[in-house]
Write a structure and sequence with these properties.
alpha+beta, 3-stranded antiparallel sheet, globular
Length: 137
């Protein structure tokens, strides 16, 4: 089940974020304020079954971006990420955005995932990440 995240979910969100094999944060503390801001404004979702969080997504309605989409490696391949991404996109559409954007490292599983989901590469960020956009329905 997808539900809105709360601050009580932060330990598990941090655990999942720290378990990734790609897109590893060099300084996790630098995103703490953004995560708290989005959680406090219902812009963060988790997928939970039987009290266990398997993944999370987040969208920032201030700029139309997908801020985060991460899965517990043990829960990958079940279609959960697609549902979490849809929740984030719906949130951006409800906030008035007609397009969503995100960035990720090139050549990664995330890069391939977004391409399979219909996202279009629109360029590179100053730090070399691939920038993707997608129209919101």
């Amino acid at each position: 089940m997808i539900r809105i995240a709360t601050r009580a979910d932060l330990p598990r969100i941090s655990e999942i974020r720290g378990a990734v094999r790609e897109n590893v944060l060099s300084n996790p503390a630098k995103i703490t304020d953004s995560v708290a801001y989005l959680i406090d404004r219902d812009g963060f979702w988790v997928f939970e079954t039987d009290g266990h969080i398997h993944g999370f997504s987040s969208a920032d309605p201030r700029n139309g971006s997908i801020f985060a989409l991460f899965m517990d490696p043990a829960s990958e391949g079940r279609g959960i990420a697609r549902g979490l991404l849809a929740a984030a996109c719906e949130h951006l559409a409800a906030a008035g955005h007609s397009r969503a954007w995100l960035s990720t490292d090139p050549g990664t599983r995330a890069d391939r995932f977004y391409r399979r989901q219909g996202w279009t590469e629109t360029g590179r960020t100053p730090d070399g990440e691939v920038r993707f956009e997608k129209a919101l329905d």
